[in-house]
Amino acid sequence: MTDRIPLLIDTDPGVDDALALLMAFNDPRHELVGLTIAAGNVGLKHTVANALKLCEVAGVDVPVFAGADAPLLHPSPDAGYVHGQDGFGDVGYEAAKRKVEAEHAALAIIRLSHEHAGKLLLVALGPLTNVALALKLDPTLPQRIARLVVMGGAVTCQGNITPAAEFNIYFDPEAAHIVFEAFEHLDLADWEAVVAHGLLHDRVVGWFKTDSARGQFYERISEKTRMWSIDRRGDHWHAADALAMAFALEPEGALDVQSRPVSIELDGTHSRGATVVDWRRQEGKPDKAAILMKYDQQRFENLIQAALSASPA
Ligand code: BDR
Ligand code: CA
Description:
Blueprint: E1 5-11, H1 15-25, E2 30-37, H2 44-58, E3 64-66, H3 80-83, H4 105-115, E4 120-124, H5 129-137, H6 141-144, E5 145-151, H7 167-171, H8 173-182, E6 186-189, H9 191-196, E7 199-200, H10 201-207, H11 213-233, E8 236-237, H12 240-249, E9 254-260, E10 262-264, E11 275-277, E12 289-295, H13 297-309
Helix pairs in contact: 1-2, 1-11, 1-12, 1-13, 4-5, 5-8
The chain binds beta-D-ribofuranose (BDR) and calcium ion.
Beta-D-ribofuranose binds next to helix 1, helix 7 and helix 12.
């Protein structure tokens, strides 16, 4: 028996996903029970291979389940120009020896929700396609999830992939709509919170001075996206999924959380994929999203630094 909180991560690795996973690998209070993988940052073939490789490098034995290879309805461009065409900075790493599980990610989410009913922490770091598929197969899923944390959205519609929308939601808005409607409550770390919690590039480079295989691998795979970020966004790097993971693993580090109704825009010439927050509660809908506004920056950075310098147990 363990009193650790069972943790299931749905992800599309992705350089910032990898940092979030390293944080989860290093957390003593949670027991990682699976990684379910979607297409998003890059195609499914790469996101699965990246998840397997990161587990191998980190010496972590956790099952990896492949899921959706495309959004539910409409094709969407990936983010290979940010993360590298393979999602891990195109460093040419040797493929992992470990293999993906046979079970589909959506089925694994349902099964694990039964095995850890009432206790499971589900953290979604990519497009919500796998979680939406699981909900379509089993609409009772939310009853068994203790807490859902989503990285996604732009809560005043200052997006990163379009002027109004954030990448994870924009990639598969129909899936996001299904998830946001089905769960009575979810915790949201959106892109605007990420911008408010930037990491100074100089400090990040300092964290790579470590003997840890995890930190050294991460330095390699993140270099391309860090250079891209310096060109585009200046002194601060924005590791979106890492902030969501900090909120998931150590929610007591949240200094300001605002609960509001949130809807996903599915149409709109300029606004498809926007997360429309009813800040003034004009529609009388329930406050279902707990929106992270401020997290303890020092605590966030400590979690990252510890993850990068950790070694296998
Ligand atoms: C989100 O989009 C992806 O590119 C990142 O991995 C993160 O999950 C940020 O908008
Ligand atoms: Ca991601």
